[in-house]
Specification:
Strands 1-2-3 form a 3-stranded parallel sheet, with no helix packed on it. 33% of the residues lie in helices and 9% in strands. Helix 2 links the parallel strand 1 and strand 2. By secondary structure, it is α/β, with parallel strands linked by helices.
């Protein structure tokens, strides 16, 4: 639905305002968006407003441990929810290169 659209925390807040009266929504795919831990609270409120939600894709949303801790209470009240998560770990390697011209 909203995958890879660069939705951040502010975007999730706007989604919540737009969808909070849509009680029959069954699937929400917002994976691949940079929601981050700052967007976790609006995401939690969005999830609370979607009681019929059955499928949720929040893979690669950069929520981190803090963000997941914030949304977990909302996930626990959605009894028939299937959640797609993926850890998006990136490792930056810095390599020193020496050049000997002599």
């Amino acid at each position: 639905m909203y995958r890879n659209n660069r939705i951040d925390g502010q975007g999730v807040l706007l989604l919540h305002l737009s969808l909070k009266h849509t009680k029959s929504l069954k699937s929400l795919a917002i994976g691949g968006n940079p929601i981050g831990h700052l967007g976790a609270e609006p995401l939690r409120e969005l999830l609370y407003s979607l009681p019929q939600l059955e499928h949720l894709n929040i893979g690669s949303c950069e929520l981190g441990t803090d963000g997941m801790a914030v949304i977990t209470p909302a996930l626990s009240v959605l009894h028939h929810l299937e959640v797609t998560l993926s850890l998006n770990l990136s490792l930056t390697l810095k390599r020193k290169t020496s050049l000997n011209l002599g």
